Structure formats: structure tokens, C-alpha cells
Amino acid sequence: MKDKDEEFLVVRDLYAGYGDAKVLHGVSLTVARGEVCAILGPNGAGKTTLLRALCGMVKGRGVIRLDGADLVGRSPDTVARLGVAHVPEGRGTFMPLTVEENLRLGAFTRRDRKAVEEDLERVYGYFPVLKQRLKQAAGSLSGGEQQMVALGRALMLRPRVLLLDEPSLGLAPLVTRELFGIVQAINEQERTTVVVVEQNAHLALGIARHAHVLETGRIVLSGTAADIRADEQVAQSYLGYRV
């Protein structure tokens, strides 16, 4: 019998799509409490759809359980209240709103005002530049700063699971490395479970404990991040080199 923490997030035989277009075909995976799990695969493999199904944005058929609670069929706001925060591809930042307003939106499910103020300071600790931009419209920030806002907004939920969809998209390599370092620090310091979809497999596997490779809506390979990094086929297909 597996330890409860080893089956913190459980996906079994998950089918999902958009109308008549089926994208996921029986996806199954398990994520342990407090680990980073990387989802790799080519464009169109279903990675984004998987994250959307996990947060309730896309309806699925099968099993999705978070710490024993069934998530299938629940609305996105209900899933968020259960502790799932989603940072979508393209960041989902509210451009006309200020940095502070964007961050406070992340705490929409919460009523503990004092703790919300404390968490704002916690977010500024991870992203000091945001404290300097508090009253600035989010749309006027650089791409890297907007991604920081998106991550900070997700942290304001006090999530148990953080879903990241292509966090490096459109960012310079130096900024990307900085963001991944912060994600790793959040995971280690707060034991937040992270599921990250990322084209930059090097970075994703560098902070992940386990990884899964998706192709055409099916998981074709699963294992430790170290084993998948060393796999010749994965190296050629996703890492751009031979082992």
C-alpha cells in the first residue's frame, strides 16, 4: 500500500477534449505531495489540455483526485478553493490593473485579511522588483515581470498544487533561469507541489523529481527526471542532443 503523500495528486484514465475533438486518451499519473513533476512532449501532445483538466477549465472523464478529494466535474473556482492554482500559457495577467491589484486577485477565495497582507510581503520576498512596481499597470511590465506577477498571483491563493504552463515562453534565457530558481525555492521552502509543462526540458528536468512524456494525448514514457534525462530517445527528441 502506497503512502498517502505518494498519491497526493492522482490521475487515472483521464479523457478530455474540446467538443468533439478528443485530446487526452486515458492519461494516468501520480504526483507525490511536495514534489515537482515535469510534463514534456511536442506541440499538440495535450500538455496544456491536461493542466486545464486538472484545474477544471476543461471537463474530463476519469479520475482526478487531490489528497483524496474528487476534482472531476467541479468548477474552476471550486478547484481553486481546494488549493489548485493555475498559471496559464501566456500568463493570464490583467493588463489594465496594477501589479498590486493583480496579486490581490489571487486571494479571491480567502477571507483572512491579515494573512493576505502577510502573503503579499512573502510574494515581494520572492519577487522584489514587484514591490517597486506596485502601482504600475501590469501591461507596462516586461515579459519576465509579467510572469512574476502571474506566479505571485498564484501564490496568493496559498496553493497546495501549482500548475505552470510554459513559464519560459517568450522569455530571455537569463530571466527563465531566474524564474525556475524561484519555482524551485517555492517548492523547497513551502513544500508546494508543482506540475510544470515546459518546452525547455533541460530546465524542467533540472528541478523535477519525476517526469512524463506525452504524445498524441497519451503518456508514452514516465520515470525519474534523471532517468528520462539520460534516455537517448528523449534526449534526441526533446533535449536536442545524443546521450
UniProtKB/TrEMBL annotation:
InterPro entries tied to this protein: AAA+_ATPase, ABC_transporter-like_ATP-bd, ABC_transporter-like_CS, BCAA_Transport_ATP-bd_LivF, P-loop_NTPase
Gene3D superfamilies given in the database record: P-loop containing nucleotide triphosphate hydrolases
Source species, domain of life: Bacteria
UniProt similarity note: Belongs to the ABC transporter superfamily.
Limits of the ABC transporter domain: 9-241
Name of protein: Branched-chain amino acid transport system ATP-binding protein
Alphabetical list of CDD domains matching this protein: ABC_TM1139_LivF_branched
Swiss-Prot/TrEMBL GO biological process terms: L-amino acid transport
A GO term, aspect molecular function: branched-chain amino acid transmembrane transporter activity
Pfam families hit by this protein: ABC_tran (PF00005)
Keywords, alphabetical: Amino-acid transport, ATP-binding, Nucleotide-binding, Transport
Upper taxonomic lineage: Bacteria, Bacillati, Actinomycetota, Actinomycetes, Streptosporangiales
PROSITE patterns the UniProt entry points to: ABC_TRANSPORTER_1, ABC_TRANSPORTER_2
